[in-house]
Design brief:
- The chain contains 5 helices and 11 strands, in the order ααββββββααββαβββ.
- The protein is an alpha+beta fold.
- A hairpin with a 5-residue loop joins β9 (about 200-205) and β10 (about 210-220).
- The protein starts with a helix and ends in a 17-residue tail after the last strand.
Length: about 250
Amino acid sequence: MKLPLYGLACADRDAAPEKAASAAPDPQPAKEILARTAQVYAECASYRDTGSVVTTFHTGDGTSTRELSFSTAFVRPDRFHFEYAEEGSSTGAPEYVIWRHGGEVRSWWDLRPGVKKEDSLNMALAAATGVSAGSAHTVPSLLMPKEVEGRRLSDLTDAVHKADEPVEGHACFVVEGKIPPPPPKVAEKRKLPRPYPILSWTVWIDEATYVVRKVEMTLPTSRGDAVEVTTYEPALNAAVPDSALVFNPPATP
């Protein structure tokens, strides 16, 4: 017979005393995981990754996908390189390159003639964030939080630590939360849509190193939802060869 909650409590009280099993420890709070992740990136000496973003668009007309690959190289304090390319490109060459060495920042985009000297790395990355499906911003904003503006994954609100899951054999914390709208001045400066949509994020964070291994973001649009899944192969505090930090955009006709 199933006892009501009160009956169960009475039954437990009246039962013969037994050595209570030790309670399982509470999972690490989501805010603590995100804060540790932010610290790891902000304090690392170097970082390097390769990764991909798969965006799936769900509309009334069906489903379509876009896939791109990217790479990041960073050596503190002032060496940086990022590039991305669409999967299936006929040349396989990068389509966007951003580079910084010291106070010099350059960018190259295959839709824009020539090399552009940028006023700042922040502005160069902001210009590439949308076309790179966010990959030009997510990690650089963690590596250089005082320099790269915008909401970062460590700013997630209503963050919840969900059941942990592995990513490519790496045990990971899973944190769900939302990215709040940017301040009005930032939204106006970047010409962002109004009202700015609330973005739902799920982040897989390596339990051993606190590096990000996967991000899933859902963006509601007027025609349906777009889901971006970004995966990373990160290397934290590893040697970064000079060849990964050279500004060498593809030759243009």
